[in-house]
Specification:
This protein has a single domain, classed as Glycerol-3-phosphate (1)-acyltransferase (3-Layer(aba) Sandwich), CATH 3.40.1130. Helices cover about 45% and strands about 15% of the residues. Helix 6 links the parallel strand 3 and strand 4. The longest helix has 25 residues.
């Protein structure tokens, strides 16, 4: 079923679930504001490990407020350094990955300017990149390499954009250079959203094409119950591969994990 056909098929059910969705939306806004309060007032007094625990707890609670269950398959890397490489479906992906294992994301610079979300992303240690600037991409790769050498766990979406989740788009290899330079392992990760009742793919959280953040959020709130599935693969080392060949191998692994 195409994305548009899926949305038309679920339209009637979404209207029936709208009253409950309004209540959930209010709870989401309150939770986001509570997170901002924590970031502004509590984070300055917390150590790195305590901040990471707060971020993970906040993300887990947000999924609960949204009515989304979390299912983790495989084992996330217990300690850094490591680079998580995942497919990209929705704005929810960052929340889901944070809930399953705290990590620092590499994100487009526009996110930093989003109201509320930008402040939360910055507090979570996000590295921002100007995607149109080759020079800025080189800077971010250097910063990522330094971060990995310090033992951090980073996460990237090498597709470079969101897809519908039915197939994994080709990977861009540039950011993988950070793992090559730092001699850090990479863990392939696959994300998908399925219905809680039957386990079929849910396209409600998709954030592609002309989608807006508000529209995607509303579809998610009014959809039938969803499970976010995170599947962690085995750690990989470059083993002499350059970033392009490694990206091809990782794409195959993420595609297999996403099935």
């Amino acid at each position: 079923m195409t994305l548009s056909a899926h949305r038309q098929a679920g339209a009637r059910g979404r209207w029936l679930r709208a009253p409950q969705a309004v209540w959930r939306l209010l709870r989401v806004l309150l939770h986001v504001l509570a997170g901002l309060h924590t970031v502004l007032l509590r984070f300055p007094r917390l150590g790195t490990e305590q901040r990471e625990m707060q971020v993970q707890a906040w993300a887990s609670r947000l999924l609960q407020v949204l009515g989304i269950a979390l299912q983790v398959r495989g084992t996330p890397v217990p300690l850094g350094p490591a680079l998580l490489v995942s497919n990209h479906i929705s704005w929810l992906d960052i929340v889901v990955l944070h809930a399953s294992r705290h990590c620092r994301f590499v994100s487009k610079s526009e996110v930093r300017r989003w109201p509320l979300i930008g402040a939360l992303a910055s507090a979570a240690g996000t590295l921002f990149i100007e995607r149109a600037s080759r020079r800025d991409a080189m800077r971010v790769v250097h910063d990522m390499s330094d971060s990995l050498k310090r033992g951090d766990v980073l996460a990237v979406f090498p597709e470079g954009t969101t897809g519908d989740g039915l197939q994994v788009l080709p990977f861009h290899a540039n950011l993988l250079q950070a793992a090559v330079s730092a001699a850090a392992p990479v863990q392939p990760v696959a994300l998908k959203f399925v219905t809680a009742a039957g386990g079929q793919r849910s396209l409600a959280p998709c954030y592609v094409g002309d989608d807006t953040l508000v529209g995607s959020l509303w579809r998610t709130l009014t959809s039938e119950p969803i499970v976010a599935v995170v599947h962690y693969g085995e750690l990989q080392h470059a083993l002499g591969r350059d970033r392009r060949n490694w990206a091809l191998d990782l794409h195959q692994q993420v595609s297999r994990l996403a099935e």
